[in-house]
Amino acid sequence: MCDHPHPKLVVLLGTNASGKSALGIRLASHFGGEIISADSRQVYRGLDLGSGKITPEQARTVPHHLIDVAEATDYYSLAQYQQAAYGAIDAIVAAGKIPFLVGGTGLYISAIVEGYELVDVPPNEPLRAELENLSLEQLVERLEKADPEAARQIDRKNSRRLIRALEIAAAGQTHAAGRQRKPRYDCLQLGLSWPKEILEERIEQRLRDRLDEGMIEEVAGLRHRGVSDLWLEKLGLEYRYITRYLRGEIGTLEELRLQLGIAIRQFAKDQLTWFKRDRRIIWLDNTKDYFQEADDRIQEWVNAKVT
After folding, report:
1. Is residue 59 pLDDT above 70, yes or no?
2. What CATH number does domain 197-267 carry, 2.70.50, 3.30.420, 3.40.630, 1.10.287?
3. In the CATH hierarchy, which top-level class contains the domain 118-180?
4. Is 150 exposed, middle or buried (0-12, 13-18, 19+ CB in 10 A)?
5. Stretch (H or E) spanning 282
6. What residue spans of the chain are helical by DSSP H?
7. Could you give the CA distance from residue 205 to residue 121 in angstroms, rounded to a whole number?
């Protein structure tokens, strides 16, 4: 008998409003671990309410990594995230603690779990300026010609990812070049899900709470500090719709809430579709105590030996 050759990593994932952040904090605190965020918007400073970032009080409960590591106007690539996450995970393991990767950005989680050898192509500003004037359909058409494999696997509703894929293709790289796998960790993936009706209620309540807490003012402040409307649109969901509201394209607060609620529910559905492709994910039973079930799973996994 011998230990698994790879360091152990707990992955806690789920849709928007699933409660993964709170459960992650509770579990990491219980096990004396630390958390690595897997959220593509929480890496940016100033994107707080809109990204569902933990509060300062929660941050003091257990150490968090990969939050507030870039300015809102910075370019921060998947490859940068992967390398920074690797560094944080390895440091936590070296300190004798359990790392917890917590979030809902499927691409970020896959980059760590699968160990993709990513291509880090720098931004091509002239190309981006050209591509930003194209529709989603036009971007997809160009990507189908430039890199058919990337076009088959990418989220075709996400202009930011489409543009990035075209940028990589223009640099002479391909989707396949960034999909060679070399997993670095022994991962236990735990998923949070709720029945559709309950999740929709959670999404609606969280949206109302964040609007009350100042999410519109947050976006207005970002615009005032020079973050462009184009960039806010690319960030999607809360930042996209509130920017449209501030420009007068959405007439009332109630209409903003309705449109944004629909968009968040659709996004949560897309998140679940992404995660369901990975059959290694253990979905916690929403009729039971999430914490107790996760605790039992982690204890069994941490103590397991392999031949």
Report:
1. yes
2. 1.10.287
3. mainly alpha
4. buried
5. strand 282-283
6. 20-31, 56-61, 78-94, 106-110, 125-131, 136-146, 148-153, 159-170, 196-213, 215-224, 229-235, 237-246, 253-276, 290-303
7. 40
Domain ranges of the chain: 118-180, 197-267
Q: Is the CB of residue 102 less than 8 Å from the CB of residue 22? A: no
The sign of the dihedral angle between the CA atoms of 22, 34, 182, 155 is: positive
What are the φ/ψ torsions at residue 73 (nearest 5 degrees)?
Answer: -100, 0
Contact 53, 67 (CB under 8 A): yes
Whole-model pTM: value is 0.86
- Which residue from 167, 181, 249, 256 is spatially nearest to 215, judged by alpha carbons? 256
pLDDT tens sequence across 112-169: 999 998 877 777 888 888 888 888 889 999 999 888 888 887 778 778 778 888 988 8
Q: Is the pLDDT of residue 239 over 60?
A: yes
SS3 103: strand
Question: Which residues are CB-contacts of 240 (< 8 A; sequence separation ≥ 6)?
Answer: 232, 233, 234, 263
Strand arrangement, sheet containing 34-38:
64-65, 34-38, 99-103, 8-14, 186-192, 282-283
Rounded Cα distance, 116 and 85, in Å: 13
Tokens of 299: 């204890």
Domains 118-180 and 197-267 belong to one CATH topology: no
Question: How far is residue 258 from each of residues 15, 194, 204, 252, 253, measured CA to CA in Å?
Answer: 19, 21, 9, 10, 9
